[in-house]
Amino acid sequence: MHPRRSAQEVLLCDLCETVPLQSHCELCNINLCVNCAVKHLSDSSKRHNVVPFLHRKSTPNYPKCPDHADKHCEIYCEKCGVPVCSTCALFGKHKGHDVSDILEKFSAKTESLQKDLEELETRIYPRYKEMASNVETEKAKLETKYGKLTTDADEQGEILHREITAIVNRQKSAIAEMKTKHLDELNKNTEEITQKMAELKQIMSDLKSILKSNDVSLTSTYKSRNSQFRTLPPKVRVTLPSFSPQKINKDQLNEMFGSLSPLSINTEHGDTMKSAEAVSSPPVKPLLDEPRLTATIDTGYTDGLYSVSCLSEDQVWTCGNNDTMKLLNLQSKLLTSIQNKSGRIPTDIAVTRDGDLVYTDYKTKTINLIKNKQIQTVITLQGWRPRNVCCTAGNDLLVTMDSDDETQSKVVRYSGSTEKQSIQFDDQGRPLYSSGGLYNYKYLSENKNLDICVADCVASAVVVVNQSGKLRFRYTGHPSNTEQSFTPVGITTDSQSHILTADPDNHRIHILDQDGQFLRYIHCDLKLPLGLCVDIRDNLFVAEHGTAKVKKIQYL
After folding, report:
1. Which CA distances in Å does 529 have to 306, 310, 400, 533, 547?
2. Where do the domains of the chain lie, and which CATH numbers do they carry?
């Protein structure tokens, strides 16, 4: 800003910069005082349009014509896409070209610029600001998180130190006990030899007395005991114990101590924000007062049905309590069947955006893709077992999984076979999901707002995090529930960002909004509903475990 043009001072003439302005030349876009206005109008090289300053219009600043110095470009050449002057349009190089009113172009472009500015100010810049804030928050937590790792390492070291000290003390105690036994044996041997030596001294003294006495009687009655003492007392031989230290295998010691998982730094492609037009709300579909059952599919499973996933509006993939996955139509006709190559029951199924089937195998720790009826194992887990799976709008896979010892649980995002994201703890380092239990189902679905929704049946809660893995809310049932406890199993989402979750013990479906507020129930005479999915027209498909039937329900 000009130092003499601040809001607290009188606005001055642009030419002399000393006298307050009074007029404005709309053609030259400059402010003028009375004297300078007269001089300005005297310039006859071009026309001017001087008006009182308060009557000035918001006139665009027309560019000068590069070929005609006295002309301004007040016309727009449609063919060349540039502003031109009237002389160029009528007689010059733009003669015969389609032209239009530059003010219309200017207005349209100004509107476009205004929209860009509005989007930058209200949507794009705030997202960058939020990302920067999230990074700073993550940096602030590093000290605590890495401090906990250091503490864990110290605690493990102390545990090992205590164990080693206990082992050393046990060895010392054993050595002391052996030493005592060794000394006892030597003392017994000494006592025996000393006793024999005392007897020998007495015999030798007696013999000397007999010899000195020259007594015939004593000499004749003497009986030798030398043969008795020629056999020496037994000699105690003790083999001293030895210590054989085990060679320390550093690899085994490291394995015994524990290991750090590698630091995984992945630079993900930045999310592409949709334009303001693209993020306009989808058509509103109100909930029906009474949902309607429109079709029933008999899947033929005899021991229970677990999952359903839509291939189209009238074809669904199913899996139940055997090793076969079935594709059926609305008339219950079997179109295709695929057997799990391991011969085990598939844990869960999902249809990709390309129409291929993905299934998980808890026993073999694999995630498999069926393409053209050929099964390909795309992921084999180490230390973890996959449970449920869903396919996202971006064609990623989201998988819930348990650790081998069933003490941990997490959600992992895969692009192909590459791990992109792992979601396990909240901001305070507490587990987001329950662990343990053979039937700890964790069906999941990605909402239209990119939230990740998990039905955690053991925790009796629907756990919802945003796409960054930050906890948004937990839904633990509606207060009106006075029957069986809320144990959510199947879960799906629709075009309205509703969250639908199966409540098998109460034989109904809960409908929530995207913020976890309960809206209403779906009953439709359901029997133990488990797996859920919706098709592109928001028809709900429900896998009934008890009847092994899939019910198609219209609820919007």
Report:
1. 9, 16, 20, 12, 9
2. 106-240 (no CATH), 292-554 (2.120.10.30)
Residues 6 or more apart from 252 whose CB is under 8 A from it?
A: none
Give the whole-angstrom CA distance, residue 73 versus residue 82: 9
Helix axes 250-257, 125-213, angle to 10 degrees: 120
* C-alpha span between 403 and 386 (Å, rounded): 9
Q: Read off the tokens for 151.
A: 């503490």
- For the record, the structure tokens of 2 come out as 């000009």
How many C-beta atoms lie closer than 10 Å to residue 86's C-beta?
Answer: 16
Q: How far apart are CA 165 and CA 67, in angstroms?
A: 95
- pLDDT tens profile 408-457: 999 999 999 999 999 999 988 999 999 876 678 899 999 999 999 999 99
Hey, what amino acid is at 384? Answer: W
Residue 532: C-alpha distances to residues 34, 247, 505, 541 (Å):
80, 58, 15, 6
List residues bridging with 461 in a β-sheet.
456
Count of C-beta atoms within a 10 Å radius of residue 37: 20
For residue 93, give the amino acid letter: K
* Cα(226)–Cα(235) distance, integer angstroms: 19
Q: Are 399 and 360 in contact (CB under 8 A)?
A: yes
Tell me how far apart the alpha carbons of residues 398 and 402 are, in angstroms, rounded to a whole number. 14
Longest CA pairwise span in the chain (Å): 179
Q: pLDDT tier at 145 (50, 70, 90 boundaries)?
A: confident
At 246, which amino acid appears? Q
| CA-based nearest residue to 370, from 385, 387, 389 | 389
Q: Please report the pLDDT score of residue 319 as a whole number.
A: 96
pTM: 0.54
Side chain identity at residue 372, one-letter code: N
Q: Three-class SS of residue 489?
A: coil
Assign 212 to helix, strand or coil. helix
pLDDT for res 265: 66
Tokens, residue 370 = 């069926």
286: tokens are 């109100």
CB 486 within 8 A of CB 506: yes
Q: Positive or negative CA dihedral for 248, 171, 169, 167?
A: positive
- Angle at CA of residue 528, ends 522 and 533, nearest 5°: 60
